[in-house]
Amino acid sequence: MSKKAKYEELASKVLELVGGKDNITFLTHCITRLRFNVKDKSIIKIKEIESTSGIIGCQWAGEQLQIIIGATVNEVYDAICAQAGLEKPNAIDENLDGNRNSGKRKFSINAILETLSACIVPVIPAMAGAGIIRGVLILLTTHDLISTDTGVFVILNAISEAAFYFLPFLVAVGAAKKFNTSLILSLVLAGLYLHPSITELAGETLNVAGFDINIVRYSSTVFPIIISIWVMSYLYRFIDSWMPKSLRIVFSPAITVLVMAFICLGIIGPLGFNIGYYVGNGIAYIFGLFPALGGLLLGVIRPIVILTGMQAVFTTIIANNVATLGYDFISPVHTVASMAAAGMCLGAFLRAKKLENKENFISSFVSGFIGITEPALFGIAFRFRRQLIALMIGGGVSGAIVAAFEGKRYAAGMPSWIMLPAFGDTIPVMLIGLAVALILTAILSYIFGFDEKNQ
Asked: InterPro entries from the entry (predicted)?
């Protein structure tokens, strides 16, 4: 069956379950959902809608029925409109419901995860696909199965890294929609973080009007750009509110970008790095006193480390350990924590009922098993709180094990079993830690579960 036929079949099924075209008073859509206003709510077959293949979830938002389709919502929407003879108004923002209830919502972990989900979910397919290619390339080059001098490697390597290197650009699209602000200016901020004149200064201090700014490498980060666009959404509206209408088109964007440049590079950008400096050195100190406790803490917080970009600090500490001690004791924890992310994907895959979720989770498992954990973190852990808890427990326990039994890594490299020879005489310890990370986290992930309707 062709894709078009599948969309038409799903559209026909949706029309039937919502009571037919005569029960629809209005239909629109956003980035992932069909949004129906209907005459008679009692004839809507919610359970049958939720169990229909191709539908991720279904919920009522006030008087509006929302059917979550995902990335193919445009095609299904067009098919429904064609079959029912409905007009097609413009798509609306995904965050419309959040705006309606913004005064009632409180700051919470759920709110943070929901915001991250809205910003990052559209990027997950790109990260999952690129992650698998990237992992396979690392596997091939590690075992000298492909030369890095070939044109094939150069192209495949660029494909595998593009989605990660330019992640701030990709996330900026979802963040602009979530915070209801200018998409173009959001992309400009992403460009600021990744501009060559900034990336070339990574690791150095830049003096601006007497103030020292720590320049950090922002490729593959999400925390700085999301926070920056959130701040910009308020600043841009404020400037636009008092700017004369005749000057808005030029001066509102110019002033916004000018002010945000200093806020981004001077405050928001280095925030994760500065926090990471103290966290990283603190954990390194704990390792020296109580290795198991240090491994436990690092394994638990590693998802947050990746989210905030603090891994740059740990990379520096790891390199210094290898140079001064001849080995590193932090890398083993990162390695088993990466495997814990794969275990979470496996447990979520086994627990999921919807085909779309199973497909997404198994692709995240493949890339996570190789050592590319971003699809797992952003696609599962930061979308479902219980999955994040499972990951933290699995990472913490396995991290404590390899730290307690003095796991060591004698060379730098990615945190993956692919680099197992680099662990030398502590390979048996690492094998135990990897097994615990995978199995324990998979079991916890399956037991804790997640709400497939709330996506």
From this structure: Glu_permease_IIB, PTrfase_EIIB_Cys, PTS_EIIC, PTS_EIIC_1, PTS_IIB_1, PTS_Sugar-Specific_Components
CA 293 from centroid of its chain's CA atoms: 28
Residues classed as catalytic = 30
Q: What angle do CA 419, 422, 427 make, to 5 degrees?
A: 90
| 294 vs 236: CA distance, rounded Å | 43
Residues 258 and 330 in one domain: no
Beta bridge partners of 67: 34, 58
Report whether 441 contacts 347 (CB < 8 A). Answer: yes
> Is 98 within a domain?
no
Domain containing residue 169: 113-275
pLDDT recorded at residue 98? 47
> How far is the first Cα of the chain from the last one, in angstroms, to the nearest whole number?
27
Query: So what's the pLDDT on residue 51?
Result: 87
The answer on 222 and 190 residing in a single domain is: yes
pLDDT at position 261 is 93
Q: CA 390 to CA 380: how far, in whole Å? A: 11
Rounded to whole angstroms, the Cα distance separating 437 from 393 reads 9
Q: What is the dihedral of CA 76, 79, 80, 84, to 10 degrees?
A: 180
Please state whether 78 falls in left (phi above 0), alpha (psi between -120 and 50) or beta.
alpha
The separation between CA 275 and the C-alpha centre of its own chain, rounded to angstroms, equals 20
- pLDDT at 276 (0 to 100): 75
Q: Among the three residues 62, 92, 122, which one is the final residue of a domain in this structure?
A: 92
Q: Which residues contact 21 (CB under 8 A, 6 or more apart)?
A: 15, 83, 84, 85, 86
Type of residue numbered 365: F
Spell out, as residue ranges, where the chain has pLDDT lower than 50: 95-96, 98-105
Cα separation, 256 vs 64, in Å, equals 36
Spatial neighbors of 440 by CB under 8 A, at least 6 apart, are 340, 343, 393, 394, 397, 398
